[in-house]
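Reposting from the mailing list since nobody answered there.

I have sequence plus structure tokens for a pair of proteins and want to know whether others read the tokens the same way I do. The first protein:
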Amino acid sequence: MRITYNILGCVFATVILLGCVRKNDVLDPITTPPGGKTDSLGATLKVTPQHHKVTINAGMVYIKYAAKTMPASMDMYDDSMTVASSAAMFDSLTQGDYYIYAIGHDYSLQQGSDVVYGGAYFHIIDSAEITYDLYLQLDNPNHHDYRR
């Protein structure tokens, strides 16, 4: 008789545990904004170009809105700014993706191979009035060529 009660108790517990399943709705993924300029206040991106962690004070910084990769040509960038006070500032940016590219001169290098360049993808996670600091590392493969 005791075995019957144990079996009935296990069956009853199993029915209760399996019967209490909550149905979860499938949520569609949230699409983030593509990125770009806004007329109102937005985020600010401060780009500081560097070569071997030394700030480059002479150069140009380009930005492409809503992009994760480098555009095919230089005229496809949406905005550009000259490096002033060791940085370039892009303001009124919305949440989204940006591709940053910079060209500058590192005058500590040998003349002729002093042009340094490079780019990076950046994602702004919030469109609040926040300043994001990006230290963009630039390079020139010619001055690393030790076979010369």
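The second protein, same order (residues first, tokens after):
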Amino acid sequence: MVTSEPTADATRADGLWAEGRQLERRGDLDGALERWREAIRVGPYDEGRRYYFGARFIQRRPLDEVESYYRQQLDSDSDPKPQTSHYLWGAALMRHGRHDRAAEQFRRALEIDPAHEMTHELWGTMLEAGGDLEGAVEHYRRAVEIFPDLRSAHLRLAGVLDKLGRAEEASEHRGLAAASDPETPRRYLYLGRALLRAGRPAAAITELEKAIEATPDDAEARALLAEARRRLAG
């Protein structure tokens, strides 16, 4: 098997990321954030690193700095996954009690990626905290429809259903949570299926190809991929 050598930018990004993790372990989160921000800027796109940085950045930095950062990301026209920027920006606004503005960022994330189950789950938690239990149920349901193995959303949904006096439904979702595997290779199939249902065949193809790479004998993934390609071809 032939593997390509890492580029100079990738090597630099890896080094910066490692420096940041060391600083984090020493308790210097501000220093870590600066290393991570630079690693994300110079290196190849890495979704995991972006979420890791974002979760800590929005907790540590003032809201105006967070907003400025994600606004720049979105205005650059080079953001491979703008839904991630909208999601994290919305999470920061939610943390500061700016719920109307947070909802707008979540809405934008879902316009770009209708299969972004994390946005539905977080939106649901915001509504639940604000007392809108039926609204929370709607978003938690959407999250588990997109990703049936999303354990945390099943548990959140069960908790709200209990508050609403719907114990039988709550028990069902606790059972689904217990049986779920958030790291299942079928996650790509779930996302591809949701994107296809939302009328996004090109995005669905990307996820379904990953599904087949992970599980070559998955008949459902192959059938959905064929359907997505037919739709894209018109």
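Reply #1 (J.P.):
I read it the same way you do. The radius of gyration is 19 Å.
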